[in-house]
Specification:
This protein is α+β, with helices and mostly antiparallel strands. About 20% of the residues lie in helices and about 40% in strands. A hairpin with a 2-residue loop joins strand 11 (about 195-200) and strand 12.
Length: about 220
């Protein structure tokens, strides 16, 4: 086990990009981590779990990787375990070799773009994106209400809803590094001025993007 820790420690150092040779002959998928161990990682891709083998040749790029490496070396270890750097629920991009399902590169990303809907693949027109601006009057894990020009408007939110705005990326990264998965209630609060991009889906306004224009003073 000590040898494995040392090998994985070398694999999780932050780097700008993987070696060119490593990128050749690989396939790439994006998804959310559902399980991570010392020598494997499982990622949900398009509703299906895919498990990849991880070893000393796996190149990992993730926020906090360099900090974890310094901490591990300060404790006399060769480096951190993969489980110290990559957490379940985290969005990642995996480049892998199909033979043996070996992960060549694991890269933490901001979000996973959902696959095309059945309507899109069948040629049916997708719901048109619309925008509504206002001040947040209520927010929960599955809904957001704003007071707009025409009164209160409520939107449905889920794990496909993204939040943007000054400082949001930093706040979400700190929570991820602390082992927590940020939710909309952590990032959006009553009194914030927002612009919501949404789609009308069978009578429900689904928020795809919530952009914070101004935080409540």
């Amino acid at each position: 086990m000590k040898r494995l820790i040392a090998m994985l420690g070398c694999a999780v150092l932050l780097a700008a990009a993987p070696p060119a040779a490593m990128a050749q002959g690989t396939k790439t998928v994006k998804g959310s981590v559902t399980a991570v161990g010392a020598d494997s990682i499982t990622v949900k891709v398009g509703g299906k779990d895919m498990t990849f083998a991880v070893d000393a040749k796996t190149h990992v790029v993730a926020p906090g990787g360099s900090t974890k490496t310094r901490e591990a070396k300060a404790e006399g270890k060769a480096g951190p375990m993969l489980t110290d750097v990559v957490k379940t629920g985290q969005a990642v991009e995996v480049s892998y070799h199909e033979k043996g399902m070996h992960a060549a590169t694991i890269k933490a990303i901001a979000e996973v773009v959902p696959p095309p809907t059945a309507a899109a693949t069948s040629g049916a027109p997708a719901p048109k994106a619309q925008t509504e601006a206002g001040v947040v009057s209520a927010v929960s894990g599955n809904s957001l209400t704003i007071k707009g020009k025409g009164g209160d408007v409520t939107f449905a939110v889920d794990n496909k809803t993204t939040v943007s705005g000054t400082g949001i990326g930093t706040a979400a990264r700190k929570m991820t590094e602390a082992g927590a998965k940020p939710t909309i209630t952590d990032l959006v609060h009553d009194g914030d001025s927002v612009s919501v991009t949404y789609h009308d889906m069978e009578g429900t306004k689904h928020a795809s993007v919530v952009r914070i224009v101004r935080k409540k003073m």
